[in-house]
UniProtKB/TrEMBL annotation:
Species name: Corynebacterium uterequi
Region (Disordered) residue spans: 1-27
Protein name (record): 3-methyladenine DNA glycosylase
Highest taxon in the source lineage: Bacteria
Compositionally biased spans, kind Basic and acidic residues: 8-24
Protein backbone atom coordinates (compact mmCIF):
# COMPACT_ATOMS: atom_id res chain seq x y z
CA UNK A 1 0.00 0.00 0.00
CA UNK A 2 1.30 3.46 -0.90
CA UNK A 3 0.38 6.66 0.89
CA UNK A 4 0.55 9.91 -1.03
CA UNK A 5 2.35 12.88 0.55
CA UNK A 6 -0.84 14.60 1.71
CA UNK A 7 -2.05 11.37 3.30
CA UNK A 8 1.05 10.46 5.24
CA UNK A 9 1.82 14.01 6.29
CA UNK A 10 -1.65 14.27 7.78
CA UNK A 11 -1.08 11.07 9.73
CA UNK A 12 2.36 12.21 10.80
CA UNK A 13 1.06 15.53 12.11
CA UNK A 14 -1.81 13.83 13.94
CA UNK A 15 0.63 11.44 15.61
CA UNK A 16 2.95 14.24 16.69
CA UNK A 17 0.01 16.19 18.14
CA UNK A 18 -1.25 13.10 19.99
CA UNK A 19 2.16 12.43 21.52
CA UNK A 20 2.59 16.09 22.49
CA UNK A 21 -0.74 15.95 24.31
CA UNK A 22 0.29 12.83 26.21
CA UNK A 23 3.76 14.01 27.24
CA UNK A 24 3.15 17.71 27.88
CA UNK A 25 2.78 17.27 31.65
CA UNK A 26 5.96 15.19 31.79
CA UNK A 27 7.87 17.80 29.79
CA UNK A 28 6.55 20.57 32.01
CA UNK A 29 7.74 18.72 35.13
CA UNK A 30 11.16 17.95 33.71
CA UNK A 31 11.75 21.58 32.75
CA UNK A 32 11.26 22.46 36.43
CA UNK A 33 13.13 19.53 37.91
CA UNK A 34 9.94 17.93 39.25
CA UNK A 35 8.96 14.27 39.34
CA UNK A 36 5.69 12.35 39.51
CA UNK A 37 5.59 9.07 41.48
CA UNK A 38 2.83 7.60 39.31
CA UNK A 39 3.21 8.69 35.71
CA UNK A 40 6.99 9.09 35.38
CA UNK A 41 7.14 5.30 35.48
CA UNK A 42 5.97 5.19 31.87
CA UNK A 43 9.00 7.21 30.79
CA UNK A 44 11.64 5.97 33.22
CA UNK A 45 10.91 2.24 33.44
CA UNK A 46 10.34 2.27 29.68
CA UNK A 47 13.11 4.71 28.78
CA UNK A 48 12.43 6.51 25.52
CA UNK A 49 13.15 9.96 24.18
CA UNK A 50 10.12 12.09 23.49
CA UNK A 51 11.68 12.93 20.13
CA UNK A 52 11.55 9.23 19.25
CA UNK A 53 7.98 8.89 20.49
CA UNK A 54 7.02 11.71 18.14
CA UNK A 55 8.37 9.80 15.16
CA UNK A 56 5.41 8.52 13.20
CA UNK A 57 6.04 5.17 11.56
CA UNK A 58 3.71 3.98 8.79
CA UNK A 59 4.46 0.38 9.71
CA UNK A 60 5.46 -2.73 7.84
CA UNK A 61 4.17 -2.96 4.29
CA UNK A 62 3.34 0.74 3.87
CA UNK A 63 5.26 2.80 1.32
CA UNK A 64 5.41 6.59 1.46
CA UNK A 65 5.32 8.45 -1.83
CA UNK A 66 8.04 11.08 -1.53
CA UNK A 67 8.69 12.63 -4.94
CA UNK A 68 10.31 15.69 -3.40
CA UNK A 69 12.53 13.52 -1.22
CA UNK A 70 11.59 15.52 1.88
CA UNK A 71 10.39 12.70 4.15
CA UNK A 72 12.24 12.61 7.49
CA UNK A 73 12.04 8.81 7.31
CA UNK A 74 14.91 8.87 4.82
CA UNK A 75 17.28 9.66 7.67
CA UNK A 76 15.87 7.20 10.18
CA UNK A 77 17.26 3.77 10.95
CA UNK A 78 15.25 0.92 9.49
CA UNK A 79 14.16 2.67 6.29
CA UNK A 80 15.10 2.36 2.65
CA UNK A 81 14.51 4.92 -0.08
CA UNK A 82 13.94 4.04 -3.70
CA UNK A 83 13.80 7.17 -5.78
CA UNK A 84 10.54 8.86 -4.89
CA UNK A 85 9.45 6.28 -2.33
CA UNK A 86 10.40 5.41 1.27
CA UNK A 87 9.49 2.28 3.22
CA UNK A 88 10.49 0.18 6.21
CA UNK A 89 13.43 -2.03 5.31
CA UNK A 90 12.25 -5.01 7.31
CA UNK A 91 14.91 -7.32 5.94
CA UNK A 92 17.82 -5.31 7.28
CA UNK A 93 15.99 -4.34 10.46
CA UNK A 94 15.18 -7.95 11.30
CA UNK A 95 18.71 -9.07 10.48
CA UNK A 96 20.15 -6.45 12.81
CA UNK A 97 17.70 -7.05 15.67
CA UNK A 98 16.79 -10.70 15.16
CA UNK A 99 17.65 -11.91 18.66
CA UNK A 100 15.63 -9.15 20.31
CA UNK A 101 12.64 -9.59 18.00
CA UNK A 102 12.65 -13.36 18.42
CA UNK A 103 12.65 -12.88 22.18
CA UNK A 104 9.68 -10.53 21.95
CA UNK A 105 7.82 -13.02 19.79
CA UNK A 106 8.47 -15.79 22.32
CA UNK A 107 7.07 -13.73 25.18
CA UNK A 108 4.04 -12.64 23.17
CA UNK A 109 3.33 -16.23 22.19
CA UNK A 110 3.79 -17.48 25.74
CA UNK A 111 1.41 -14.90 27.16
CA UNK A 112 -1.21 -15.70 24.53
CA UNK A 113 -0.96 -19.47 24.71
CA UNK A 114 -1.04 -19.95 28.47
CA UNK A 115 -4.26 -19.63 30.49
CA UNK A 116 -4.93 -16.12 31.74
CA UNK A 117 -4.88 -15.81 35.52
CA UNK A 118 -6.79 -13.28 37.56
CA UNK A 119 -5.96 -14.29 41.12
CA UNK A 120 -2.95 -12.13 42.02
CA UNK A 121 -4.98 -9.05 43.06
CA UNK A 122 -2.06 -6.72 42.36
CA UNK A 123 -0.14 -7.86 45.42
CA UNK A 124 3.19 -7.45 43.62
CA UNK A 125 3.31 -3.79 44.68
CA UNK A 126 2.67 -4.82 48.27
CA UNK A 127 5.45 -7.40 48.08
CA UNK A 128 7.85 -4.66 47.01
CA UNK A 129 7.42 -2.86 50.36
CA UNK A 130 6.94 -5.90 52.60
CA UNK A 131 8.93 -5.63 55.82
CA UNK A 132 11.08 -2.76 54.64
CA UNK A 133 11.40 0.85 55.70
CA UNK A 134 12.52 1.91 52.21
CA UNK A 135 9.46 2.01 49.91
CA UNK A 136 10.09 2.30 46.18
CA UNK A 137 7.98 5.45 45.85
CA UNK A 138 7.88 8.66 47.86
CA UNK A 139 4.25 8.15 48.80
CA UNK A 140 2.51 7.40 52.10
CA UNK A 141 1.35 3.85 52.74
CA UNK A 142 -2.44 3.78 52.94
CA UNK A 143 -2.46 1.24 55.80
CA UNK A 144 0.92 2.08 57.29
CA UNK A 145 3.85 -0.34 57.47
CA UNK A 146 2.27 -2.80 59.87
CA UNK A 147 -1.04 -2.81 58.02
CA UNK A 148 0.70 -3.34 54.69
CA UNK A 149 2.70 -6.28 56.03
CA UNK A 150 -0.48 -7.77 57.48
CA UNK A 151 -2.17 -7.74 54.06
CA UNK A 152 0.75 -9.64 52.53
CA UNK A 153 0.77 -12.11 55.41
CA UNK A 154 -2.94 -12.78 54.89
CA UNK A 155 -2.58 -13.67 51.21
CA UNK A 156 -0.66 -16.06 48.99
CA UNK A 157 1.54 -14.23 46.49
CA UNK A 158 0.87 -15.54 42.98
CA UNK A 159 2.97 -13.24 40.80
CA UNK A 160 3.89 -14.65 37.36
CA UNK A 161 5.85 -11.68 36.00
CA UNK A 162 9.59 -11.78 36.57
CA UNK A 163 10.09 -8.03 36.11
CA UNK A 164 7.74 -7.42 39.03
CA UNK A 165 9.02 -10.31 41.13
CA UNK A 166 12.63 -9.14 40.90
CA UNK A 167 11.69 -6.03 42.91
CA UNK A 168 10.14 -8.01 45.77
CA UNK A 169 11.84 -7.47 49.10
CA UNK A 170 14.02 -10.36 50.31
CA UNK A 171 11.35 -11.19 52.88
CA UNK A 172 8.61 -11.36 50.23
CA UNK A 173 10.28 -13.52 47.58
CA UNK A 174 9.95 -16.83 49.47
CA UNK A 175 6.22 -16.12 49.85
CA UNK A 176 5.56 -16.24 46.12
CA UNK A 177 3.93 -19.41 44.85
CA UNK A 178 6.61 -19.75 42.17
CA UNK A 179 10.31 -18.91 42.05
CA UNK A 180 10.67 -16.76 38.94
CA UNK A 181 13.84 -16.25 36.91
CA UNK A 182 14.68 -14.53 33.65
CA UNK A 183 15.46 -17.90 32.14
CA UNK A 184 12.01 -19.28 32.89
CA UNK A 185 10.09 -16.14 31.98
CA UNK A 186 8.30 -17.69 29.00
CA UNK A 187 7.07 -20.55 31.20
CA UNK A 188 5.07 -18.18 33.38
CA UNK A 189 4.14 -15.19 31.18
CA UNK A 190 0.36 -14.98 30.79
CA UNK A 191 -1.99 -12.39 29.34
CA UNK A 192 -3.99 -11.78 32.52
CA UNK A 193 -0.95 -10.14 34.10
CA UNK A 194 -1.26 -6.37 34.36
CA UNK A 195 2.44 -5.86 33.71
CA UNK A 196 2.46 -8.21 30.72
CA UNK A 197 -0.28 -6.02 29.26
CA UNK A 198 1.64 -2.86 30.13
CA UNK A 199 4.74 -4.30 28.47
CA UNK A 200 2.96 -4.29 25.10
CA UNK A 201 3.94 -0.63 24.98
CA UNK A 202 7.58 -1.62 25.50
CA UNK A 203 7.42 -4.16 22.68
CA UNK A 204 5.97 -1.53 20.34
CA UNK A 205 8.90 0.73 21.16
CA UNK A 206 11.46 -2.00 20.62
CA UNK A 207 9.94 -3.09 17.31
CA UNK A 208 10.56 0.42 15.99
CA UNK A 209 9.63 1.04 12.34
CA UNK A 210 7.79 -2.27 12.07
CA UNK A 211 4.96 -0.88 14.22
CA UNK A 212 2.54 1.75 12.89
CA UNK A 213 2.10 4.90 14.93
CA UNK A 214 -1.54 4.27 15.77
CA UNK A 215 -0.66 0.92 17.35
CA UNK A 216 2.04 2.55 19.47
CA UNK A 217 -0.50 5.13 20.66
CA UNK A 218 -3.01 2.42 21.53
CA UNK A 219 -0.38 0.53 23.51
CA UNK A 220 0.69 3.70 25.32
CA UNK A 221 -2.89 4.55 26.29
CA UNK A 222 -3.43 1.00 27.52
CA UNK A 223 -0.22 1.19 29.56
CA UNK A 224 -1.54 4.38 31.19
CA UNK A 225 -4.69 2.58 32.32
CA UNK A 226 -2.65 -0.40 33.54
CA UNK A 227 -0.47 1.93 35.56
CA UNK A 228 -3.55 3.64 36.98
CA UNK A 229 -4.95 0.34 38.27
CA UNK A 230 -1.49 -0.76 39.39
CA UNK A 231 -1.16 2.24 41.69
CA UNK A 232 -4.79 2.48 42.79
CA UNK A 233 -4.55 -1.14 43.98
CA UNK A 234 -1.11 -0.64 45.51
CA UNK A 235 -0.35 -0.07 49.20
CA UNK A 236 0.36 3.58 48.42
CA UNK A 237 -2.14 6.37 48.99
CA UNK A 238 -2.22 8.17 45.63
CA UNK A 239 -5.35 10.23 46.23
CA UNK A 240 -3.38 13.47 46.42
CA UNK A 241 -2.42 12.80 42.79
CA UNK A 242 -5.99 12.38 41.63
CA UNK A 243 -6.15 8.58 41.73
CA UNK A 244 -8.71 6.46 43.51
CA UNK A 245 -8.33 3.49 45.83
CA UNK A 246 -8.92 -0.16 44.96
CA UNK A 247 -8.79 -1.74 48.40
CA UNK A 248 -7.67 -5.23 47.42
CA UNK A 249 -7.57 -6.25 51.07
CA UNK A 250 -11.40 -6.37 50.89
CA UNK A 251 -13.71 -8.63 48.88
CA UNK A 252 -15.16 -5.60 47.11
CA UNK A 253 -11.71 -4.33 46.18
CA UNK A 254 -10.67 -7.72 44.84
CA UNK A 255 -13.79 -7.87 42.68
CA UNK A 256 -13.12 -4.41 41.25
CA UNK A 257 -9.48 -5.24 40.59
CA UNK A 258 -10.34 -8.43 38.71
CA UNK A 259 -13.08 -6.70 36.70
CA UNK A 260 -10.71 -3.98 35.51
CA UNK A 261 -7.84 -6.43 35.07
CA UNK A 262 -9.97 -8.57 32.76
CA UNK A 263 -10.96 -5.58 30.65
CA UNK A 264 -7.37 -4.41 30.29
CA UNK A 265 -6.29 -7.93 29.35
CA UNK A 266 -9.07 -8.05 26.75
CA UNK A 267 -7.82 -4.83 25.16
CA UNK A 268 -4.27 -6.14 25.31
CA UNK A 269 -5.16 -9.28 23.38
CA UNK A 270 -5.89 -7.28 20.23
CA UNK A 271 -2.58 -5.41 20.45
CA UNK A 272 -0.65 -8.59 21.26
CA UNK A 273 -2.17 -10.45 18.32
CA UNK A 274 -1.40 -7.59 15.96
CA UNK A 275 2.21 -7.45 17.09
CA UNK A 276 2.54 -11.17 16.47
CA UNK A 277 1.12 -10.77 12.98
CA UNK A 278 3.64 -8.02 12.28
CA UNK A 279 6.49 -10.21 13.48
CA UNK A 280 5.24 -13.11 11.39
CA UNK A 281 5.06 -10.88 8.31
CA UNK A 282 8.61 -9.72 9.03
CA UNK A 283 9.61 -13.42 9.00
CA UNK A 284 10.75 -13.69 12.61
CA UNK A 285 11.44 -17.38 13.19
Amino acid sequence: MMLQPAQWRERQQAHEAAIDERVSARQHRRSRGLTHPVWDFLFDYYPVRVSHLRRWHPGLGITLADPGQTSPHRGWAGYRSDGGAVYCDSTSYVAKHHTMLAGIDSLLAAARNQPARFDCFGLHEWAMVYRTDQPRHDLPLRLGHAGTDAVVDAHRLRCTHFDAYRFFTPAARPLNLTVLTRGTQTEHEQCGCLHATMDLYKWCLKMGPLVPGELLLAAFDLAVECRRLDMEASPYDCRSYGLGVVAIETAEGKAEYVRRQRELARQGEAIRDRLRRILAAATIE
